[in-house]
Design a protein that fits this description.
The structure is a single chain. The chain has 127 residues and is mostly helical. It has a domain at 27-42 and 58-127: F1FO ATP Synthase. The protein is 82% helix and 0% strand. It is built from four helices and no strands. It has helices spanning 2-13, 21-45, 56-95, 100-126. The longest helix is centred in the middle third of the chain and has 40 residues, at 56-95. The mean pLDDT is 77.
């Protein structure tokens, strides 16, 4: 499983982008997200080993799964965006310190992705 997650991270982040402790922390975060998603599906549908008739309560539980997916996906995307911005921004600030405000603006744009995911989740739960 770790090898599969490492391959996924190398595709998403680029080969050699993560190394050492950071790689394992990101893998742990992905595992925790997957466990939270499984728990949300369990709570939304209620674990019943026997197939029963579908009710409106089962469909209502899908709202929570949709909200969880919106927040999870947007936060992972924001983390990747901020990672790229800050690592490239630190190198750029060494050479040209006047770029620091632009780096903060680009990091804020990356953080906006997480806020949009939260807004979508609120809209899903409010519907």
């Amino acid at each position: 499983m770790w090898a599969m997650m490492e391959r996924l991270l190398s595709v998403v982040m680029g080969k050699g982008a993560l190394s050492g402790r950071n790689k394992y922390l990101l893998m742990l975060a992905l595992l925790a997200t997957a466990a939270a998603l499984v728990a949300a599906v369990n709570v939304a549908f209620g674990f019943t080993p026997v197939a029963t008739e579908t009710t409106t309560e089962d469909v209502e539980g899908l709202r929570f799964v949709g909200a969880a997916l919106a927040v999870t996906g947007s936060c992972i995307g924001a983390g990747i965006a901020i990672y790229g911005t800050t690592s490239a921004g630190a190198a750029a600030m060494v050479e040209r310190p006047e770029l620091s405000i632009w780096i903060l603006i680009f990091a804020g744009l990356g953080e906006g992705v997480a806020i949009y995911g939260l807004i979508v989740a609120i809209l899903i739960l409010g519907a």
